[in-house]
Amino acid sequence: MAKDAPSLDEAEAQEVEERSPPTAKVVHAAVSQQGEEELDRPISSLFWSGVAAGFGIMGSVWAEAALHLHLPPAVWRDAVAGLGYSLGFLIVILGRMQLFTEHTMVAILPLARRPNRRNFRRVARL
C-alpha cells in the first residue's frame, strides 16, 4: 500500500481488491478463451451474423441516399448527405459486430498463440 494511502479496514481492503483491474495474464486468458469460442461457432451462426452485418453496413447507404434524396439541391447537400455514413457505423459499433470492431483481436489471438493449419482455417471460416 502507498505511504499516503489511508488505512483501510479488512472489508474496505477487500473492496479495493475487487475493484482493481485484472492482470494482463487474466485479460489475455479471457480474450483467448472468448476467441476459441468464436472460432467454434456453427456455420449457421456465422451465416446469420454475416446477414446482420450486411444490413448494418447497408444502413450507411440507405441513410446517405435518403438524405441526398430529401435535401434541397444546394452546395452543402453532398456534405450533409455524407453524414448518413455515420448511421451504419453506429449500427456496426453498437451492435458489436465481429471483425468490424475492436473484436478482431479476439478471433486472431488463438491463431497468434498457435499458428497452425487448423487455426488458420478457423479464422478464415470466421
Q: What can you see in these coordinates?
A:
This protein has seven helices and no strands. It is an all-alpha fold and 126 residues long. It has one domain. Helix 2 crosses helix 6 (104-113) and helix 3 (43-70) packs antiparallel against helix 5 (85-94). The termini are far apart. 10% of the residues are buried. The mean pLDDT is 83.
Spatial separation of the terminal alpha carbons:
45 Å
Computed CA radius of gyration, to the nearest angstrom = 23 Å
Residues in helix, %? 55-70%
Structural class: mainly alpha
Poorly predicted regions are: none
Give the beta-strand count. Answer: 0
> How many domain regions?
1
What proportion of the residues form beta strands (DSSP E)?
A: under 5%
Spatial shape = flat
The residue-averaged pLDDT reads: 83
Give me the strand/helix succession. Answer: HHHHHHH
Features:
126 residues; mainly alpha; 7 helices; 0% strand; flat
Summarize the structure.
The chain is mainly α and 126 residues long.
